[in-house]
């Protein structure tokens, strides 16, 4: 059997007190170690934040530019359609005028021919 020497009541109290002290020492806060890169870390964090902000600003600017370009393309397409419609309208008017002129000339020629025929 395990015969532990000095197992009296006082020894057990002493052992329990030492165990409690060891447990408390383990939970006791340790001395703070100053981070040697503390200021550098803050600068690196700030640089990373600036870089991310610049990237996001560039992305927003690109998105705005894309929207503006698409709006400009739509506007140009509408202007081209309107110009084509105006040109077609002008072409139709020119054709009507040409037909009217031709009809008027044919009527004049017919009257001239009728007058000649009467003589």
Verbal overview:
The chain has helices at 9-27, 38-118. It starts with 8 loop residues before the first helix and ends with a helix. It is mostly helical and 119 residues long. The model has no long low-confidence stretch (mean pLDDT 90). It has a domain at 40-118.
Give the structure's gist in a few sentences.
The protein has 119 residues and is an all-alpha fold. Helices cover 84% and strands 0% of the residues. The radius of gyration is 51 Å and the shape is rod-shaped.
How would you summarize the topology of this molecule?
Layout lengths: L8 H19 L10 H81 L1
Our measurement of the CA-to-CA distance between the termini, rounded to an integer number of angstroms, reads 163 Å
Mean of pLDDT: 90
Helix content: over 70%
Helix-strand pattern? HH
Percent of residues in beta strands = under 5%
What is the gyration radius calculated from CA atoms? 51 Å
Structural class: mainly alpha
Tally of helical runs: 2
The parts where pLDDT drops under 50 for at least 5 residues are none
How many extended strands? 0
Biggest β-sheet: count, sense, barrel?
none
The geometry reads as rod-shaped
């Amino acid at each position: 059997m395990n015969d532990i020497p000095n197992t009296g009541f006082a020894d057990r109290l002493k052992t329990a007190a030492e165990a409690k002290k060891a447990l408390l020492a383990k939970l006791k806060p340790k001395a703070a170690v100053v981070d040697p890169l503390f200021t550098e870390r803050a600068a690196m964090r700030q640089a990373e934040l600036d870089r991310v902000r610049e990237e996001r600003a560039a992305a927003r600017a690109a998105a705005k530019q894309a929207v503006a370009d698409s709006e400009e393309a739509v506007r140009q397409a509408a202007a081209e359609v309107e110009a084509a419609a105006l040109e077609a309208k002008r072409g139709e008017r020119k054709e009507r005028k040409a037909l009217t002129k031709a009809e008027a000339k044919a009527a004049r020629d017919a009257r001239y021919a009728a007058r000649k025929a009467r003589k």
